[in-house]
Predict the 3D structure of the following.
Amino acid sequence: MKCLKDLLWLLPFVVIFAAGCKGTGESTYQGAPETAGEPIGGPTITPPVDTDADGIADESDNCPTLSNAAQADLNANSIGDDCEQLGVKQYGDANPEMAQTMAIGKDGSVFVAGIKYPGFGKSALMLAKFDAALQLQWLKASTETLGDKMSYGFGVAADQSGNSYIVGSVEAGTSYDAFLIKFDPSGGVVWEKTFGSALYDVGYDVALDSAGDPYVAGHTMGDLGGRPAGMSDIFIAKFSQTDGAQKWMKHYGGNKSDQLNTIGVDKTDNVYVAGLTQGGIEGIPAAGGIDILIAKFDKDGNRIGAIKQIGTASDESIFDLVFDKDGNVYLAGLARGNFSGTGFGANDIIFVKLDKDLNELSREQFGTDQRELGLAIAVDSNGNAYIAGSTTGDIDKDGPGAYKGGDDIFIMRIGAEGWIRQFGTDLEDIAKAIAVADNGYIYVSGYTQGGLEGNTSAGSADIFLMRLDSAGEVK
């Protein structure tokens, strides 16, 4: 046991009278310090350094230069997410790889689906998994699943257990069928499902409900549960996560061409789909050449309300949808005319916000005098919307970006604190997917034909991945 005098500095200005320390023979009274100027109460304790003032000492802080009390570290490499500069990553080989869509897993893993040309003269579906630091973990092509048939990957989703689902179209004789494949976290095939009519069928997107069952949206030129009504019709289908068994299929169409490009399932398991229509479905007249199409279903496939069309005398289409925390629906796409007050160029970016009952709350239009495509949308926990796509103009007029050539990548945040970022090479660069991770970072994926942001091109087209913060800075 320590002598009480050794604890004296903890009790300043207190004189301790006691019987002394047992077995030491020391005096029972400790007098004033003999050295002038020595602090009363003992030695000075230096507090730990906390450079970023986040309440965590530098020696224990995984990012000591930036305030990050949560200590977020998605890839568990002891470097805080706020301090880890991932930059822009580019992946590929001598053959083309073209990312079409992306999903973020619960652990921060990034799944990218698209098309790969593996060298035998045919396209193949591609699914790649990256860790939270954007390092490639594995890449699968259809030669490992669907054989050497031509195939295309268009949609991807990830569940809470790290499984992933990819949807697309695969060669079937002289036509194409839709497919849905489930992969385990290591990239092994759990099951694969192909379905279709005698004509052309394609699955464009996939989403999961709270139980983990997948829903697929796309279009068909044949009969998928309903008599063909036009050149192409829309379908929505639900499958079992366990074995891929089909639970239900819905088929709708007008007298011309209709197409679904995106599907989402909200937190109450209602299913929303969106795309385009030329002829008007179920007798609803088209406002122009091509209108926006959006519909809502319950988890059993029952339609909730009417199929909704939005349009002008020109053409409009939706490519992606997402929900905010209140269940509002955000849509991104293109318009070829005056959609919300001013038309800018050949194709403009459009943003539409609807409530959960598909009542329109707002719409906006953005662009240059050239051509833009709003291909993907994401929303953060504060309801801020982010759109990504391509431009052939200088859309970042007030920022550091400038048009580089071909198609450039753009990423924009909508709202009072909005911003636009532009990236590119002198070749084709297109952002196809955007998502917001749980830590608030924005992930963007697509493909580039050049060397993007200092990277070296491996082939005629490579996958790119980038991470930005909410202010639009590459991290």
The domain at 89-468 is CATH 2.130.10.10 (Methylamine Dehydrogenase; Chain H). Residues 167 and 180 are 5 Å apart (CA to CA). The first strand starts at residue 88 and ends at 91. DSSP finds no helices and 28 strands in the chain.
